[in-house]
Amino acid sequence: MTSVMILNGPNLNLLGTRQPEVYGKTTLADIEASCAAHAKALGISVTCAQSNDEGTLIDHIHAARGSHDAIILNAGAYTHTSIALMDAISSVELPTIELHLSNIHARETYRHKSFIAPVAIGQICGFGPHGYILALDALAARLSAK
Ligand code: DQA
Questions:
Q1: Which residues are identified as catalytic?
Q2: Would the pLDDT of 53 be above 80?
Q3: 73: three-class secondary structure by DSSP
Q4: What is the pTM of this model?
Q5: pLDDT of residue 6
Q6: CB contact at 8 A, 139 and 95
Q7: Atom of ligand 1 nearest to the CA of 9
Q8: Which long-range contacts link 27-31 to residues 24+ away (Cβ below 8 Å)?
Q9: Mean pLDDT, range 92-105, rounded to an integer
Q10: Mean of pLDDT values over 54-65
């Protein structure tokens, strides 16, 4: 069975209460539950993890190699700063979708730069929690076509 790791970075554990005018009121637990249900309908399995720590996110990416077929990564603010996360994605050679709830290109200029984008197969941003569902659909189509 195709297996996808959904990895969320710093401050995303606070979804639901964190700046709801930007990120909405849906909690991370809600997002993970809807991903699990949607993945089941697609016939794929998902494993979800969240960390506020850059090194722990890198450890999760390393561990994904060999146990998962693809990654959905919302690296939060590390998107805009972390060469280490970019290198981790390059190193494991797993198809990775960069995901953001908000449209980072319509926000502050420091959010326009992404270190993840050059090593991702694509970027989904601006669709709120539904972005995770779009990412699962994209991966299911891509992986079944292989
Ligand atoms: C975010 C966008 C980032 O710029 C920000 O630092 C986040 C959340 C998003 O999902 O919209 O923490 O990744």
A1: 23, 100
A2: yes
A3: strand
A4: 0.97
A5: 98
A6: yes
A7: 12
A8: 30/129, 31/129, 31/132
A9: 98
A10: 98
Please give the distance, rounded to the nearest whole angstrom, from the Cα atom of residue 142 to the centre of ligand 1: 25
Q: Is 74's C-beta closer than 6 angstroms to any atom of ligand 1?
A: yes
Contacts of 23 (CB under 8 A, 6+ apart): 15, 101, 102, 128
Q: Is the CB of 104 under 6 A from ligand 1?
A: yes
Residues near 27 by beta carbon (within 8 Å), at least 6 away in sequence = 15, 16
Residue 1: predicted pLDDT: 85
What is the phi/psi pair of residue 99, to 5°? -130, 140
Length of the chain: 146
pLDDT digits (tens, 9 = 90+) for 4-46: 999 999 999 999 999 999 999 999 999 999 999 999 999 999 9
Task: Give the domains, in start order, of the chain with CATH numbers.
Answer: 2-145 (3.40.50.9100)
